[in-house]
Amino acid sequence: MFPEYRDLISQLKTTHTRFHSLFDKHNKLDHEILRLEAVSRNTLNDQISQLKKEKLRIKDELYNILREESNA
Questions:
Q1: Cβ contacts of residue 33 below 8 Å, gap of 6+?
Q2: Could you give the dihedral angle defined by the CA atoms of residues 6, 8, 14 and 15, in that order, rounded to the nearest 10 degrees?
Q3: Could you report the per-residue pLDDT of 5-43, keeping only the tens digit for each?
Q4: Is-contact 18 65, C-beta < 8 A?
Q5: What pTM was computed for the model?
Q6: Are 13 and 28 spatial neighbours (Cβ–Cβ below 8 Å)?
Q7: What highest taxon heads this organism's lineage (predicted)?
Q8: Is the pLDDT of residue 52 over 90?
């Protein structure tokens, strides 16, 4: 995720509390989505879709933080 910001991501994970929290939540959602897709039942499609939307929202927020911090 965002290879152009690799160094900044490493830095923000240790210095920016909100970024660190979002980064962890994004990773947890990613693992949960992969787990649910592995057992993929039709009844889980709505749940997976909601998790993917939340993951994308978090990714957008992470990107916004990265852009702000890279311009600082």
A1: 48, 51, 52, 55
A2: -170
A3: 999 999 999 999 999 999 999 999 999 999 998 887 777
A4: yes
A5: 0.88
A6: no
A7: Bacteria
A8: yes
